[in-house]
Design goal:
Blueprint lengths: L5 E5 L4 H12 L3 E6 L14 E4 L7 H14 L4 E4 L3 H7 L7 E2 L4 H8 L1 H8 L8 E3 L12 E5 L8 E3 L14 E5 L4 E10 L2 E13 L5 E7 L2 H14 L3 E10 L2 E8 L13 H6 L12 E2 L1 H7 L7 H4 L2 E2 L8 H20 L3 H6 L10
Length: 363
């Protein structure tokens, strides 16, 4: 028990952050939660001592950094854990925070996040498909054998998958990559690191998604080859923080198609041991293999899937009898995202990250 710790967690909008704060509370740790949204799902949890609203990391960066630094000082914070894309801003100004910051340096984060530099820089450490900047791509007659994605994107947004294209259709091809299409089953990997030491890792299949991108149903799977590659990679980088990957399991083995150097939904599957991944040295043995889902979104998007036994038996990632308000109040969080969507005229998924996105050119 390390009750002397005071932890500041950023990214209260993410359901995985709710799992994290609950896990710390069970260990007797004081947690302050912060985000730039007014009504994020984490605001309602009884696992925190305070919710603090922040300026926008993307549009008011200096005020954001100054506010986080003030919170670190005011609450005598020992550990700062960013969970969403605010991690890039925190990493860039890492030396301003007088506590342990659970990120690697901004140069490494940016190389991992940018789909072109990830492929170029790490093709000898991981199995990564042929990836080229779209402005250098020549094989347009066979573009249907490639997947075109923006170099900075998330939730599978703005993708052309297996269709014939012309260079002009991309608008700004220098902002896109062409990646050789790999056929197989897509899985995700979530891991936690401290200075090159692997603390936690889980592989899972996002059986159902919100649109094309974000998973809302998480099925535990085991893949030793993927786990071995991730372990070797994180050690090579001497990585600190949360590190996630999207992987295609093909007939010839796993292919790492992109990297997300931040928290993802795999945290739900590590629920019972999540805090220990940040508190205790060494890799945590995986315990609970029960599938989890975001029940509210599953009911909205896939109501008839509840006839399937696998779905009925899955655990809701949000509701807990000892902390019921996040599940009861999540419609308010959805209402705030809907307001951003309508006001900014953007998609649902883009609205969830609009004020914290990192696209490589932020101040």
């Amino acid at each position: 028990m390390k009750t002397h710790k005071n932890i500041l967690i950023l990214g209260a909008r993410a359901p995985m952050t709710l799992v994290l704060v609950r896990s710390f509370k069970k260990q007797g740790i004081r947690v302050i939660l912060a985000d730039s949204l007014v009504l994020p799902i984490g605001r309602w949890t009884n696992a925190i001592i305070k919710y603090e609203q922040l300026p926008s990391a993307r549009f008011n960066t200096q005020a954001y950094i100054n506010t986080v630094a003030r919170l670190v000082s005011n609450y005598a914070i020992t550990d700062l854990i960013p969970c969403c894309e605010e991690a890039f801003y925190i990493a860039k100004y890492k030396n301003k925070f007088l506590c342990k910051v659970w990120t690697t340096n901004i140069q490494e984060l940016n190389r991992l996040h940018n789909k072109e530099t990830f492929a170029k820089a790490f093709k000898h450490q991981l199995s990564i498909p042929e990836t080229i900047s779209a402005d250098e791509f020549k094989n347009w007659n066979h573009s249907n054998h490639y997947v075109f994605k923006q170099k900075y994107s998330r939730f599978a947004g703005n993708i052309f998958n297996g269709v014939l294209l012309t260079k002009d259709e991309l608008g700004n091809p220098e902002k896109w990559i062409a990646q050789k299409k790999i056929h197989g089953k897509e899985i995700c990997v979530y891991s936690i690191w401290d200075e090159g030491e692997l603390r936690g890792l889980v592989c899972y299949e996002p059986l159902f998604r919100a649109g094309k991108g974000a998973g809302i149903f998480f099925k535990f799977i085991e893949n030793k080859e993927v786990e071995a590659q991730v372990k070797k990679f994180g050690e090579h980088l001497n990585y600190t923080g949360q590190l996630s990957f999207d992987v295609i399991i093909a007939k010839d083995g796993p292919w790492f198609i992109e990297c997300n150097p931040r928290g993802t939904s795999g945290a739900h599957l590590l629920e019972n041991q999540l805090a220990d991944c940040f508190l205790v040295n060494g890799l945590r043995p995986f315990q609970d293999k029960r599938n989890q889902m975001l029940l509210f979104l599953m009911l909205l998007g896939y109501p008839f899937k509840f006839f399937k036994k696998e779905v009925r038996q899955a655990k809701d990632a949000i509701f807990r009898y000892y902390d019921p308000l996040p599940a009861m109040m999540q419609w308010l969080s959805l209402f705030e995202i809907a307001y951003i969507k309508l006001f900014k005229r953007i998609s649902w998924l883009k609205a969830t990250t609009y004020d914290i996105e990192w696209n490589g050119n932020e101040s």
